[in-house]
Amino acid sequence: MNLSIVGSGYVGTTVAACFADYGHEVTNVDIDEEVVAAINAAEAPIHEPGLEELVTEHGGDRLRATTDYAATRETDVTFLALPTPTGDDGRIDLEILEAGVRSLGDALASKDDPHLVVVKSTVVPGTTEETVAPILADASGKTLGEDLHVAMNPEFLREGSAVADFRDPDKVVFGTRTEFARERLREVFAPLLDQSDAELVETGIREAEMMKYANNAFLASKVSLVNELGNICKEYDVDAYEVAEAIGLDDRIGERFLRSGVGWGGSCFPKDVSALVAAARDADYEPALLEAAVEVNEKQPDRLLDLLDVHLDPDGKRVAVLGLAFKPGTDDVRNSRAIPVIEGLRERGADVAAYDPVATENMRERFPDVEYASSAEAALDGAQGAVVVTDWDEFAALDSAFDAMANPVVVDGRRVVERRDGITYEGLTW
Ligand SMILES: NC(=O)C1=CN([C@@H]2O[C@H](COP(=O)(O)OP(=O)(O)OC[C@H]3O[C@@H](n4cnc5c(N)ncnc54)[C@H](O)[C@@H]3O)[C@@H](O)[C@H]2O)C=CC1
Ligand SMILES: O=C(O)[C@H]1O[C@H](OP(=O)(O)OP(=O)(O)OC[C@H]2O[C@@H](n3ccc(=O)[nH]c3=O)[C@H](O)[C@@H]2O)[C@H](O)[C@@H](O)[C@@H]1O
């Protein structure tokens, strides 16, 4: 099948490269010329395990990219993988999505065959049918349900394992209203459904939109709950990880997403919980539990720094920050817990020495005047204290590097560093 994917970021590039690998002809449309050039040169524009191999194999061949929306006319289905950020008021900001949809509608105006447009971006219930569909119909002059169809196909992949997650998801959700949309989506996803254990959920468009928010809100709240329990554990000198392991054996709770620590960040949990809270309030419903989940999350970096304060006054001292990415396996620093941690350290007058295996350049844009070390060892050298913010495996292997610290105080926000003789070790929730 001929597919176009509008937006070529974490989702758009991953989805496009995987669909090309399943044998589809795929065109990415993006306004960023560097992203387009990279894909056509068979280079991955973002860091994701396994993506480089796929783009190397298919880029410039079955996988192409362009800045020209006209390319969508040559395709049967267009997926929208555009950003849906948080606006200043906490609500979903649809400006970028609407601009992309308008350009797509203009391009489709001169296409004769019927076309399916699938919203893959995360959007609040009602957006596909009340915002996307009318703009498309207006710009293209086409008739909804006849030669223009819309659908919603939420994406559940995680950064850092995007390719593996996309190929083998727990579920694939089709939110549709017409048989045409259902049939085309089944055809697009046939190879993935054949080669994975994914459950197919066929539902309405608004339900599909809400499933995505419910999924993320549940997971974010689960981590906040385990963080709250972990904070109580710490006060009572109980190891929260032992407790989590035991409660996770109850399959009503489940063993995953029980890692307590410095909290959740990233490009999606914070914005999606915020958008859902705002949408609930717009409907005159006060989502008390989700608000509390956000509040607990915002306090975890302060608790980490309070623990450091117990052992040293950071003013004028070198403090190593180990990990800048919002989670391991990615160079993404959006809403990383490292941001409030670095801000808090600087407010205390500390000289921050930061290290991350892949996210340094992205964090440098945010904090240009922080010292970025080339290794964890270099960051720790001469430091009076260290905080661990991202659970990169390489931090677990650190050992003699702590001997180079001037004062070996380590506050671990992710349960990654091994306790050892010679360091003063504080776990955030254990
Ligand atoms: N990042 C993730 O792990 C996941 C993201 N999502 C959702 O997927 C959507 C996309 O997210 P990401 O891939 O993270 O975004 P991103 O920020 O990584 O990439 C978006 C891309 O869209 C391009 N773009 C912006 N305006 C455009 C326009 N008018 N026309 C064409 N291209 C344009 C940008 O240049 C960029 O390359 C969001 O709604 C997000 O909530 C859903 C599941 C996972
Ligand atoms: O909508 C999205 O963008 C995606 O958001 C999350 O994926 P992602 O943000 O890439 O990463 P996660 O692995 O979910 O981690 C999110 C944050 O929670 C934190 N976390 C996760 C698990 C845990 O046990 N403890 C914990 O603190 C991580 O450190 C990270 O900061 C969801 O897991 C995906 O299903 C979803 O598609």
UniProtKB/TrEMBL annotation:
Keywords: NAD, Oxidoreductase. Substrate binds at residues 156-159, 212, 257-261, 265, 327. It comes from the Archaea. Pathway: Nucleotide-sugar biosynthesis; UDP-alpha-D-glucuronate biosynthesis; UDP-alpha-D-glucuronate from UDP-alpha-D-glucose: step 1/1. It catalyses: UDP-alpha-D-glucose + 2 NAD(+) + H2O = UDP-alpha-D-glucuronate + 2 NADH + 3 H(+). GO terms for molecular function: UDP-glucose 6-dehydrogenase activity. Coiled coil: none annotated. It is an enzyme of class 1 (oxidoreductase). InterPro entries: 6-PGluconate_DH-like_C_sf, NAD(P)-bd_dom_sf, UDP-Glc/GDP-Man, UDP-Glc/GDP-Man_DH_C, UDP-Glc/GDP-Man_DH_C_sf, UDP-Glc/GDP-Man_DH_dimer, UDP-Glc/GDP-Man_DH_N, UDPGDh_AglM. The active site is at 268 (nucleophile). NAD(+) binds at residues 30, 84, 122, 159, 271, 334. PANTHER family: UDP-GLUCOSE 6-DEHYDROGENASE TUAD. Belongs to the UDP-glucose/GDP-mannose dehydrogenase family. This is UDP-glucose 6-dehydrogenase. It comes from Halorussus aquaticus. The gene is aglM.
